[in-house]
Amino acid sequence: MTPAARLSAAIEVLEAIDTNRSPAQSALKEWGTAHRFAGSGDRAAIAGLVFDTLRRRASGAYVMDEDTPRGRLLGALRLERGLDTDAIAALCSGERFAPAPLSEAERSALDTRTLDNAPPDIAGDYPEWLDSHLAEAFGDDRVREAAAMASRAPLDLRVNTLRSKPEKALAALSHLGAQPTPWSPLGLRIVLGADARNPGVHAEEVFIKGGVEVQDEGSQLAALFAQAKPGEQVIDLCAGAGGKTLALAAMMQGKGRLIATDRDKRQLAPIHERLSRAGIHNAEVRGPKGAENPLSDIKATADLVVVDAPCTGTGTWRRNPDAKWRMRPGALEVRLKDQAEVLERAAALVKPGGRIAYITCSVLPQENGGQIAAFTARHGDFAVVPPAEVIGALGDRAEAFGKAVRSSPQGLLMTPLRTGTDGFFVSILRKAG
Known about the structure:
Shape: globular
Largest sheet: 9 strands, mixed
Structural class: alpha/beta
Number of strands: 13
Oligomer: single chain
Distance between the termini: 66 Å
Helix content: 40-55%
């Protein structure tokens, strides 16, 4: 397919997303099924255009003064891809499979309109109803923070020390352009271009043999800050597919007891194969069985309970840009109740002197510091471990990280702008003992 034909296809997918209110991945999959002539490179390029348009949905429409799939895409070509009017006009030639030529209004918009006087939610590309929440989190910096959350994320990997070493895994993936991550001592990063296909990491020998796992650097750091130790009893209370469970197991070096559980057994489905490939033998997976509590035998005996709490996912907008446009105010209310409930469950499992690692992939204050302040008000026997002490787990990288991360009395907030990671909040709570 020509670049112009890919542009037409992207507009078609964006129209389907609008019409059917479907997630972007579903719309792209349906388009690919109906257009089997498109090769993998074509599909990757079309997906890149679609996701760039979703990242810049508000600002693209504003610049073009046209809130349509075509208008947003043209705006994204200017704002995200940096194309000038002539370059965009060359793609929109109206020839076979190409989009219709630019109108005079479109040319004028591309030549003259900017984001200089745009409202914060337009310049930052987020729903207007979230502005007060982001203002509470970031103040006048919210446009810069949100714009960074609208950028494309790199592919991050964590080296599994039970199967490999960072230098060995780096050498094995050097042909993919892998580089060490700036903060995590076990992280590798592959930066992707706008049209780049995701590299086939799952087909690499070092992945097949369990030497690396796909995991954002922020998630790696969250697990690292939990400081699971060999010989401890550790519970991953919201284990999901097991990303942090695998990281915790490696930190425990196969010694101690690790229990992974989740309220949704469907989320746990991939964990068994991942544990096997990673060479983990001290992890026990406990799925829910009806109304029965899978942790009924554990009462105040755990050294560490990791709560990767259900949240709005605002910190992962780089990877899932259409999610922010489908998010509704009611979702935050539901998540706040879920978080309070899971923290109560965790509190009952921790022994005196033990700790809870509370983690969200959200940047919203209510889900982060607000939730921790409410918890410690209810539970006077728990106290927040000072962020400076938590950061100490990074050793010689701790000082630089401490200057980059957003710290508060309740915990640490990583953001794409400040730390180059997804948005993650981490609070370590220690029980008196």
